[in-house]
Amino acid sequence: MIHYVRAGETLTSISMDYRTSVQTLIAANRLQNPNQLRVGQPITIPGLPDPQTIPYQIAISVGKKQLTLFRNGQVMKTYPIATGKILTATPIGEFVIVNREPNPGGPFGAMWLSLSKIHYGIHGTNDPSSIGKAVSLGCVRMYNQDVLELSSIVPNGTRVYIRPN
Fold first, then answer.
1. Beta-carbon neighbour count of residue 58 at 10 Å?
2. Residue ranges making up the domain that contains 128
3. Which of 38, 52, 61, 138 might form a disulfide with 84, Cβ 3.0–4.6 angstroms?
């Protein structure tokens, strides 16, 4: 997968977002000076497929509290979700699923799908009454059966678009 450097990013922040080491990124990109990244510079993220080769995409509407799964541009399924509170809003932007952890425990329910933004993910919940509300610390919560179904369909590398509405 290729990540294009955005303003303010460092190799350390990119490595954290994609859950890989700085050394791995340096080696994969043959970086001569890892402290001199430029906006728009392509960085290869080893171990993740090119999202354009994946037929699935996820669109999340924070306002509608809805996650929509697409396959080849066609709606496959829509799920109800919970999103972040006003002070801990769900991040808006384009991300990819970088890894997953079944049964992470605690409030994360039956599955955790890490997004390419450190500390954020799509996960189940131990509080199903929270679905449909703005109550999380920024993550996207789903019913456990829904996140298990979603995770059985989409591979790592799947694009996730989070929009305000």
1. 24
2. 51-163
3. 138
Burial class (CB in 10 A: 0-12, 13-18, 19+), 13: middle
Catalytic residue among 100, 123, 141, 159: 123
Same domain, yes or no: 34 and 90: no
For residues 57 and 34, state if they share a domain. Answer: no
Q: Is 124 a catalytic residue?
A: no
Interacting residues of 56 by C-beta distance below 8 A, sequence separation 6+? 69, 70, 71, 76, 153, 154, 155, 158
How long, in residues, is the chain?
165
pTM: 0.94
> Catalytic site residue 150?
no
Average pLDDT across the chain, whole number: 97
CATH number reported for the structural domain that contains residue 132 in this entry: 2.40.440.10
